[in-house]
Automatic annotation (TrEMBL):
Pfam families: YqeC. It comes from the Bacteria. It comes from Natronincola ferrireducens. InterPro entries: P-loop_NTPase (IPR027417), YqeC (IPR017587). This is Probable selenium-dependent hydroxylase accessory protein YqeC.
Length: 256
């Protein structure tokens, strides 16, 4: 199974897809972009916050707006399948992204088949709690992909493993230093201020438990999915994956 199949992408339907959480957002976003390129689709990859600049091998064309209108910049680009568009590059080599209304405008202009948006940051930590100002999800997002790294399970709630550990502690009711167990992860996912915060009610919600790169983690992921059966959940589907793998990166998929 491919990632686009796991999140129910109809290759004949244009969509905006946003990625939130931690533990592999950028990897997952570009894995999906590559699949869509292979299907002959035109894809814009961007962010509404900031991401580390992608390396050249994973895109076809890279543009910066530099205070120009995004559509004007894109009109100058060559024909390609995967475009990167942002405002500017910082001294830390981060790509600053577009405003959410710019994403909406570009979708309405029908320049792209798919627009993939990294909608919050995690400082490369496997799990996080969102701050007041995040995530920044475009209003016309059709699918929101929430990602958690399974390497966070059984780790302590601290800055080594959790982005915004104080907010995470408050949200989940666990103390700083406590271990992240299955119920803690479920609480983060189902809480209205948690993983899928600011997601439109009309957006489909997909949970990806990433980094299932061994049998133990895959089984832990299945245990988390099993726990969801005790709760009413807004999720369309749950996915266990190892997105850095070249093949067979979708390990399990199920509905709720």
């Amino acid at each position: 199974m491919k990632a686009f199949q796991a999140i129910n992408i109809d290759l004949n339907k244009r969509e905006v897809i946003s990625f939130v959480g931690g533990g592999g957002k950028t990897t997952t976003m570009f894995k999906l972009a590559e699949e869509l390129r292979e299907a002959g689709k035109k894809v814009l990859v961007t962010t509404t916050t900031a991401i580390f600049c992608p390396h050249k091998g994973i895109y076809d064309y890279f543009s910066l707006t530099n205070n120009e209108h995004p559509l004007k910049v894109l009109k100058k680009t060559k024909d390609a399948n995967i475009y990167i568009l942002g405002r500017e590059i910082t001294q830390e080599n981060k790509l600053l992204g577009l405003q959410p209304e710019d994403v909406t405008m570009l979708y309405e202009e029908k320049e792209f088949d798919y627009i993939l948006v990294e909608a919050d940051g995690s400082k490369r930590k496997p799990i996080k709690a969102p701050a007041d100002h995040e995530p920044v999800i475009p209003s016309n997002t059709a699918k929101t992909i929430g990602i958690i790294g399974l390497d966070a399970l059984n780790k302590p709630i601290n800055n080594d493993w959790v982005h915004r550990e104080k907010l995470f502690s408050e949200l989940t009711g666990k103390a700083i230093g406590d271990r992240i167990d299955i119920k803690t992860i479920v609480k983060l996912i189902i809480d209205s201020q948690g993983l899928f915060k600011n997601t439109s009610p009309s957006s489909e919600k997909y949970l990806i438990l990433n980094k299932a790169d061994n049998t133990k983690r895959e089984n832990l992921g299945k245990a988390i999915m099993e726990e969801f059966k005790k709760w009413e959940t807004p999720l369309t589907a749950g996915i266990i994956a190892a997105m850095e793998a070249e093949e067979e990166y979708i390990k399990w998929r199920g509905g709720f």
